[in-house]
Amino acid sequence: MEMIETEIAGYQFADVALMENALTHSSYLHEHPEEAARDFERLEFLGDAVVDLVVGEELFRRFPDATEGELTALRAALVSSAALAEVGRRLGLPERARLGRGEEDSGGRARAGLAASLYESVIGAVYMEGGLDAARAIVNRTMGDAIAATLAAPRKSPKTLLQEWAQAGHHALPIYRTLEVSGPEHRRDFVIQVEAGGQVAQGSGQSKRVAEEAAAANLLDLVTRA
User: Fold this and answer.
1) Catalytic residue chosen out of the listed positions 20, 39, 48, 58
2) Backbone phi, then psi, for 57, in 5-degree steps?
3) Domain spanning 7-152: which superfamily?
4) Which single residue of 9, 45, 134, 139 could bond 54 by disulfide (Cβ 3.0 to 4.6 Å)?
5) Comparing C-alpha atoms, which of 196, 147, 149 is closest to residue 168?
6) Is the predicted pLDDT of residue 2 greater than 70, yes or no?
7) Given the residues 120, 212, 213, 221, the one annotated as active site
8) pLDDT at 16
9) Residue 37 above 80 pLDDT?
10) Beta strand pairing status for 189-196 and 175-182?
11) Domain boundaries, the chain
12) Model pLDDT for residues 160-207, shown as the tens digit of each residue
């Protein structure tokens, strides 16, 4: 009888079926309808929220003077699809995934999106079985170096980071538009929209600069998850 490896990133799964669900692509189930397993998509949804929480919690603790916009931008960079794919590949998750033959033959195992999805689904499975403390331990263990590098690097504003993202992707520079100005003159509230790379987001604040930074941070959070 074949032994199933139940350890991932230092965590030992007691529920083998749960672990297999976290590593099962929908294409595998389409070709094996006799199996009672689920694919990883529901666990991926849960893991995405857990990773956001743990990384956000760590950034909140390590950057006590950062604004909401700065924290959002930092988190967006750390939990981007590309960043999570790198973690997933380093853990060897694509090699352990259960794929359908068609997905396998079309190069699905090498896709960055699969590695990122598997990482989030595994975190979701750990959360379901071991709770938040177990999931937090794995996220910090597997992403700790990236978080530490972020801590050591010079801090950039969300507007700067968004501009760098646009330039790296050969997009036009971000365009900021004032949508609304309200409140008394001594306490204005601004709503700003930013557009870049075919995507738009909004931000608000009590100065135009703060609202622009918030909008840039929100757009970064959107585009880095694509």
Assistant:
1) 48
2) -60, -45
3) Ribonuclease III domain (1.10.1520.10)
4) 139
5) 196
6) no
7) 120
8) 93
9) no
10) antiparallel
11) 7-152, 158-223
12) 989 998 998 889 999 999 999 998 888 899 999 999 999 999 999 999
Task: Indicate the class that CATH gives domain 158-223.
Answer: alpha beta
164 catalytic per annotation: no
For this structure, is 180 an active site residue?
no
Distances (CA, A) of 182 to 176, 186, 205, 206: 18, 11, 11, 10
Token output for 150: 């972020």
Give residue 37's identity as a one-letter amino acid code. A
What residues contact 109, with CB distance under 8 A and at least 6 apart? Answer: 94, 95, 97, 99, 103
Tokens of 19: 């672990």
